[in-house]
From TrEMBL:
CDD domains: TrpRS_core. Belongs to the class-I aminoacyl-tRNA synthetase family. It comes from Candidatus Uhrbacteria bacterium CG22_combo_CG10-13_8_21_14_all_47_17. Coiled coil: none annotated. This is Tryptophan--tRNA ligase. Its main location: cytoplasm. One of its GO terms (cellular component) is cytosol. The gene is trpS.
Length: 330
């Protein structure tokens, strides 16, 4: 069986360098070797309140970002989750397989529900079930994500196995694909916190849309430690190790090579080099986002095509699932 890759990003806020390193950069490499589906998961986005006009704009913005990051629509399918209704149908069915006790253990649910001032939606609670549906619908066996999605992915595996045991072999068991270094990019202001799209502190994150002077400022202001040596040790030196991870992914140098490049030099020199490497990596993407965003007919065409390809596979799978579960009529 050919490997099938599925992944998605929520079209909320602007994407940052953590999303790029853990997801988009991996995706762009995978598309040359595998059959890939890259989804814009707008149904996940509405599990917390969204402004409808902004959400629609963010969906197209996300599509432009995918393309600008090198995701090639001739090699893979790029589409919008809500345009393939089978995702929600399968999510309902899988919701009868997953258990409340399993959902209650999800750390992302616990964290996100604390931030809701208007009450916690049932959708936020069942969010991981929809994510399982996204993946299982396509029999994806490889799912490139950051570390924060590992628990959700583990639940998707549990649900797939349970369904297969109850109704017969139906779903492929997915495997996570995680970057060895950089699966969890931390905030530039607090190395104990992951870099997050929704963090209101602008200086905590580098956005894909940041101009060079902003990137320089954010990196020069990033917290470090008092030791003054560029050395990789995530336990003892989390802030510097996080910056080294960014440098590793943007310069192509190994962690050892970075240590020897900056041996005997201070954090100032290191940060200057890091800023230039990040700018060199992200500037072409920022410029392309603009040009894809302004060519809306091309974006529409790519999203239509992606939807049609996804829909064909999803419809076939749902027919089998309904049959297995005994829904409707023969
Ligand atoms: P989302 O939109 O929060 O994040 C998109 C991707 O970026 C990764 N990520 C990070 N990686 C490293 N360091 C960080 N600080 C960081 N922040 C975010 C995430 O792990 C993710 O890979 N539930 C998912 C979207 C989703 C999905 C799916 C993913 C829905 N269905 C099916 C894979 C397969 C989410 O909210 O990602």
């Amino acid at each position: 069986m050919k490997d099938l890759v599925f992944s998605g990003i929520q079209p909320t806020h602007e994407l940052h360098i953590g999303n790029y390193i853990a997801a988009l950069k991996q995706w762009a490499e995978l598309q040359h070797k595998k059959c890939c589906f890259f989804c814009i998961v707008d149904l996940h986005a509405i599990t917390v309140p969204q402004d409808p006009k902004k959400l629609r704009a963010n969906i197209l913005e996300a599509a432009a970002v995918y393309l600008a990051a090198g995701i090639d629509p001739t090699k893979c399918s790029i589409y919008i989750q809500s345009e393939v209704a089978e995702h929600t149908e399968l999510a309902w069915i899988l919701g009868t397989i997953g258990k409340v006790s399993e959902l209650e253990r999800m750390t992302q649910f616990k964290d996100k529900s604390k931030k809701q001032t208007q009450g916690v939606s049932a959708g936020l609670f069942t969010y991981p079930i929809l994510m399982a549906a996204d993946i299982l619908l396509y029999d994806a066996n490889q799912v490139p994500v950051g570390e924060d999605q590992m628990q959700h992915l583990e639940l998707a595996r549990v649900i797939a196995r349970r369904f297969n045991e109850r109704f017969g072999e139906t779903f492929t068991i997915p495997q996570p694909l995680i970057q060895k270094v950089g699966a969890r990019i931390m905030s530039l202001q607090d190395p104990e916190k992951k870099m997050s799209k929704s963090d209101p502190a602008e200086s905590s994150k580098i956005l894909l849309s940041d101009k060079p002077e902003i990137i320089r400022k954010k990196i020069m202001r990033a917290v470090t430690d008092t030791e003054g040596s560029v050395h990789f040790d995530p336990e003892k030196k989390p802030a510097v190790s996080n910056l080294m991870t960014l440098y590793h992914h943007t310069s192509g140098l190994s962690l050892k090579e970075i240590e020897s490049e900056f041996k005997g030099k201070g954090y100032g020199d290191f940060k200057k080099a890091l800023a230039e490497a990040v700018i060199a990596e992200l500037s072409p993407i920022r410029e392309k986002i603009e040009s894809y965003r302004s060519n809306s007919s091309e974006l529409e065409r790519i999203l239509d095509e992606g939807r049609d390809t996804a829909k064909e596979i999803a419809a076939r799978k749902m027919k089998l699932v309904r049959e297995r579960v005994g829904l409707g009529r023969a």
